[in-house]
Every structure is written in C-alpha cells, then in structure tokens.
Chalcone isomerase family protein
Amino acid sequence: MNDRLDRQARSGHWLWMLCLLSCGAFADNKWQETIPDARLVGSGELRLFGEPIYSAQLFSPVQPPSEEAPFALELTYHRRIERDRLVSVSLEEIRRLYGEQVSPEQLEQWRGEMLQAFTDVEPGERIAAVFLPGQGMRFYVGGELRHEVHDSDFARAFFAIWLDPRARHPGLRERLLGALGCVAAEAERTC
C-alpha cells in the first residue's frame, strides 16, 4: 500500500513539474498579454539551400487571421543574423511587393522603426510582431516589448512579407495560414 502511494506521489510530482515547465515556456511571451485568446493558426520553417533560417508561428483569435483582429507572428531564428541584414531584407521585400506605392521617404521612416525594433539575433532567439488593427504593431524580442509602431500602413506592409498572396515563400505562407500540412510541404523542404 505504501509503495503504491509513493508511486502516486512521484507520478503527481512529475505531472506538476511538466505543467510548470510547459507553462513557463509560454510565460515569457509578453505579446500574449495583448492577445490572450490567440491560438496557433499555422507554422512552418524557412530554409534556404537546405539550411534552416527560422521557424515561424502565426497566432490569432480568429481563423483565418484578418486585419479586423489582432494577430502575432513569432520567428525563432536558427542562425546568427545581424540587425542591419534583417532590416535590409525586410525593406527589399516591402519594395518588391509595393513598388512605387511606397515612397523613398516612407521606406526611410520604416527603416528607422525596424532599426529600433530589431537586434542582432542568435540561434534560438525569438522576435514576435503583433498586428494591432487601426493602431499599428508591437515588436517583442526574447519575449519582452522592444518597440511600438503607430503606423497602420507600415504594419500591413511588414506582415505582407509573410502573408500576402505574392509572398516570396508561398509554401511558408500557406502553412502559416493553416492551409498546408507538413506532408504536402515536404516537397518544398520548408516544413
């Protein structure tokens, strides 16, 4: 009898520890305070030449996500990338998607916002961007609020990098929006 009670107590202890560990994994995501009812919509991984660059997860209280509700895109990096490179690649993609619709002055202003929002990233580091309808967006680095942008045009252009139908990596876009499972994505080697 004592042996059985001892096993139950150890079992309960392990369940409690697992709960604490799993809850702790999400406790440092301060962006979740902004969208407490957000749930995972989809996820995927960006690979270039077979090398993983980052894993991405899209969270929203509604599916599919829309510009009428807040949502969050969280990237976990698998390699070191300098802040200036993150900014320049983001601006190149916005320029590719919007062309003449975005003025050089606007791009320069957005460069300044991204320089404030981003840091050099190391493997395992997370950057989350939260879309706030009619307000703009917030950037979180390592779970902590780093910068807030009060520009809805910038927010839409930034998220278009991943979510626009013309996104450079359509397979990743589809997985983020929950449209493709990993089996279908295997052919693209981006799952």
User: Anything to note?
Assistant: The chain is about 40% helix and 25% strand. The domain at 29-188 is CATH 3.50.70.10 (Chalcone isomerase). The two ends are 49 Å apart (CA to CA). Strands lie at 39-48, 51-60, 71-77, 126-132, 136-141, 144-149.
